[in-house]
User: What shape does this take?
Amino acid sequence: MIGYAFMGRAHSQAWRTVAAAFDVPQVARRVIVGRDESAVAEAARRLDWEEHSTDWRAVIDREDVDVVDICTPGFLHAEIAIAALEAGKHVLCEKPLANDAAEAEAMVAAADAAQRRGQIAALGFTYRRVPALALAKRYVQEGKLGTVRQAKAAYLQDWLVDEEAPMSWRLRQETAGSGALGDIASHAIDQVQHLTGQSVTAVRGRLATIVPERPGQDGPEAVTVDDAAWATLELDGGALASVEVSRMATGAKNRLTVELFGTRGALRFDLENPNELWFLDATRPVAEQGFTRVLVTEPEHPYLEAWWPQGHVLGWENAFSNQARDLLVAIRDRETTDAPGYSPDFADGLALQRVLDAIIASDAADGATVAVTDHLHR
Amino acid sequence: MIGYAFMGRAHSQAWRTVAAAFDVPQVARRVIVGRDESAVAEAARRLDWEEHSTDWRAVIDREDVDVVDICTPGFLHAEIAIAALEAGKHVLCEKPLANDAAEAEAMVAAADAAQRRGQIAALGFTYRRVPALALAKRYVQEGKLGTVRQAKAAYLQDWLVDEEAPMSWRLRQETAGSGALGDIASHAIDQVQHLTGQSVTAVRGRLATIVPERPGQDGPEAVTVDDAAWATLELDGGALASVEVSRMATGAKNRLTVELFGTRGALRFDLENPNELWFLDATRPVAEQGFTRVLVTEPEHPYLEAWWPQGHVLGWENAFSNQARDLLVAIRDRETTDAPGYSPDFADGLALQRVLDAIIASDAADGATVAVTDHLHR
Amino acid sequence: MIGYAFMGRAHSQAWRTVAAAFDVPQVARRVIVGRDESAVAEAARRLDWEEHSTDWRAVIDREDVDVVDICTPGFLHAEIAIAALEAGKHVLCEKPLANDAAEAEAMVAAADAAQRRGQIAALGFTYRRVPALALAKRYVQEGKLGTVRQAKAAYLQDWLVDEEAPMSWRLRQETAGSGALGDIASHAIDQVQHLTGQSVTAVRGRLATIVPERPGQDGPEAVTVDDAAWATLELDGGALASVEVSRMATGAKNRLTVELFGTRGALRFDLENPNELWFLDATRPVAEQGFTRVLVTEPEHPYLEAWWPQGHVLGWENAFSNQARDLLVAIRDRETTDAPGYSPDFADGLALQRVLDAIIASDAADGATVAVTDHLHR
Amino acid sequence: MIGYAFMGRAHSQAWRTVAAAFDVPQVARRVIVGRDESAVAEAARRLDWEEHSTDWRAVIDREDVDVVDICTPGFLHAEIAIAALEAGKHVLCEKPLANDAAEAEAMVAAADAAQRRGQIAALGFTYRRVPALALAKRYVQEGKLGTVRQAKAAYLQDWLVDEEAPMSWRLRQETAGSGALGDIASHAIDQVQHLTGQSVTAVRGRLATIVPERPGQDGPEAVTVDDAAWATLELDGGALASVEVSRMATGAKNRLTVELFGTRGALRFDLENPNELWFLDATRPVAEQGFTRVLVTEPEHPYLEAWWPQGHVLGWENAFSNQARDLLVAIRDRETTDAPGYSPDFADGLALQRVLDAIIASDAADGATVAVTDHLHR
Assistant: This one.
């Protein structure tokens, strides 16, 4: 594993836990890698890794390493992932795939080659493994919603409400690529595409920087990324979707919400209550219709058989164990069958990056419609 | 109409409204009666009655009066209701029927005689006409819950939380009969019996006066009624129910809640969100089960065809119009067919009074089980 | 009153009720007017009006008529309202003010002249009189939200989900002007402007007709209005707002939601639970912060002193009584003082129409930003 | 660790995780013990223990074992715990402490002696370590509720709704002691006592076996424990509490609810949404009062600094890690300071057992009040 901050802690928890919950082999946590020797040593101790290192290049060449888990900031993803794939390792890369489409394209090329050699190149949109969202996907696939015509997604946070919150790398375009768009709209859009099974073909977008200047180390500094964004999306199955994200939404802590409206039913989800899926079956008699709160803790629900008895809810972190399980199964199946591999993969990350880029391009063009497939070729 | 306070206002609103909503005749609001001449004159003006009077005996004898609506405090119910029935009028009497069982028995006797003459003697448990609770009743009757085995009801208010809230007639046994028990447990128990279709046969009860003394006109005065009560009820269909009521439940404004647990489903209702009924269908596949929030505003729902389009919610007062409608229909049908009359009637009020008396008797007997049918004969 | 359909019923209920709830004079319900003699006669009987008529011109000239209440479809508003104002009557006109800006401008001119003569020209955005929304307005005015930076509004309904739902005048541009935009986005945008106290200066908009063809009398017919719309709004106080509306939102019955995000607090409202206002005070200690569900039924809340005791909720219709009360007070005060009159008035209706027109213009311009103040002058 | 079923899995997860989340030493997971050699070997592998054993007596004598974690069924607790304490080990024992008071008294005696030697004897009422409930405790201690006068607790499950659910050791008195009472009412009562800081002094109770017979191995077999129970509790601080539990509450999965009503505020909690605490501050202006939904995921909340950023919720299992942390800290502090040890301890378990026994005794005495302190001495 490369990286030991927030994501490194979450992934470590998953690797420690996955074999207790699921019927997969124990994962030897060989080496954790970081730039700061003493910090990574401490991380290794607390997160229970066998060794630590400051040299990721050496680590990815080790014969006793099968999987490289990349938890670094996004601008380091491309170099590490491509090297790891070329070294023959399976790779799990945190989202976003990269900070721009050029890097992402190079990563997809490396992944394509690797996948032909039987390697996995997995992308960490972990929320797909939240059981309630996996159940939502199942409902859509089973036809419970009929044709999805309209979707409404939002991801609202409030950590920038205070104007005195200081500058950081996340607020500069050169390090972060974009602001709320890349960080959280990416999750919302991934869910819209994943759940509907439809791909975005065109967008209209708007970005805003509501607080344009924040305290830097040497006085006020310009915020060069968006802190809120809006978009409407056209999908290839005919659905229309809206996305709204903000880091200024007072009182919203981690409010990723997704609503789907179909010809036969509707769904609602809120990440602040992640164990609940709300489903409306429009084919029921009108006098009995309404949104049903499904508490997603039954053995019949995705991933739940591995966890606790009904009514014992899961937390945010369990989705990482579910992800680890699916990755291990994909690796196993990849080596022995014609299984389709792991989803989302790097190509999904590139496709998503193109949607984000189209939103930026639309905003730059005063809101004009930008097609997703061709805007990169201008 | 006799009485013009809180209940008088609510009933007046219903009589003014019923013919606009439902296909019933306009009701001529002939006379409103009260003790205070100027106050009742003002009430007649504001509540839009043709005349006012201070002499209820004269009014109930008027030929142009068909229905007597009794909205006085409970200790006046018996005398007025019996006289009105004997004068050949249909009667709607607010709950509680009476302050004790002896009065209630006399009222039932008068009502029996009147009903044989084609009169209606209706009791104002208006919450039975809240559409969501009427829908709950329909679900139970349709078998959607299977056999109801357990019920859980509560009625929580908080208007006595402040120890300095002053004494009033509601806090003295001689005027109020009982406290939270008669005032609000009566509603909870009526719902349990009505919704399950089962009658209470035995109880265990507990009463408490949490603040035993309050400021009176001449210094501290003893509170002689309960301000909280608990009971468990055995019902003749085999169900067990619990009831909890309080006037000291900080933050609860008018929280009448009822939950029914059956072999095939469950229901939940909360009077603070009276347009919602929560229903769980336990026969659905486990992966789709959960409580469904039915927004009870569809034309297919009880009483709703008369009101507004879907999604336009009703308020507390609309149940009184629904009650007025049912009463008018009962009067019409009573005169022309063998229709069963109006429910609840005075006999239902007496039966409920016996349950309340049994709870008081149980508390007096240190919680011993008291049968409802025989405890009056001791 | 001109018109006796849905809105006519709601307004009649208000005129019958207002003097019982509030300290205002009884309103004599003189004449109800409609085109169909027998239907309007039946309406007069059920809704309890003294007379009926099929000639609105004759009625607005009657000396015993002081107020003209216009509940007709929108395309008739201008002619009737202008004539009534010129006849010296106070006017309450249902929303939308008119179907296009030219008509609206003529109405505003007539209203300006009338207001100088002491008349009231009121516009029926009744939701401003829903107590929870009036409380929201009070909170904002008291500074509880600080500066509102972001707003998020939606109005979702589902009555067109079924593709076989037939054509009607509401789905043709020539009769309805626009679709979901004028019908329901108008409410959402009025709330955003009203609650924030800020005016929209520029918009980006998108319209969609998700089901483009529906069964007409002579076979399939084209739907020529939008059935869903999205917009982002720039407000003159610096806030940014999003609006999303749909008639295809499966499971949404009458879901007008408004969220405001400010520097010191946040608000949430949902018309399907209209007695609740959710408020977050961001100045409280973090460990105690969260959205507070205020059950808006206390005497301290707007309009509530006139209604029922705490915890006894109001319905959709009560807002019309509140509106009638405010109108009567405005009429009284207008004649005796320098009071500011009634809000919203016709000028507010015109301003809103300009916002809607700007959204249409933006969509026609592939989503380009359209200024509200100048787009009419092109 | 002795035992490797449901609780063994949950505890193992905690021991693996605690040092990653909290600033405590890594815990060497030395030996896991069970009766079935191959099953416990498999458990050791999956749950990542160094060794396994079938001989708990040998294990508790090992010098490299410092803590014995007892996750066996209740009837084995006494023998193991007493032996482990006498062997000088710290002990964590799952609830219930024992199946009857006699065993519990012996355990308390052993714990008293051990505690004097610096050992910890901890009882696993893990829900005290759910952050929202820990926050509730803090609120009460800070006086935010004033004096708690009334409490309302319930624990509802539905796993016995089906009459054909088979007999098991949990449904026989000789193995389970009691049914819903000991299993889940114990949690509800522990919370009432813990949160209020008051002890139960007297009870009235009622037990019921709603389905008296279930399929056994040799045909129908009598259920000899309660499947639902109700009690009212008197507490030594003057509060009155109600408790209701059931295994027949259709649709309730793991619904432990606690409500506290105080002179200055109120609290609500529901284990099905364990990251939320609802708090009403009755000292706020009436127009702003209401229950506030506190999403308990802030660093300022109990235990949260160790976990994920705000808005990233915890699951049921995290409370076990929190418990492990508190136990490790108690052990550390016990050895170096005069710290008060760990709460709840065995004496708390005995006290709770006496409350449960009093409820059983009350039911046997037809609901009569039974004092908690003296009923054991009859």
About this structure: The first strand of chain C starts at residue 31 and ends at 33. Residues 374-378 of chain C have pLDDT under 50 and may be disordered. Residues 280 and 286 of chain C are 11 Å apart (CA to CA). Chain C has two domains: 6-124+339-344, 131-273+275-310+353-360.
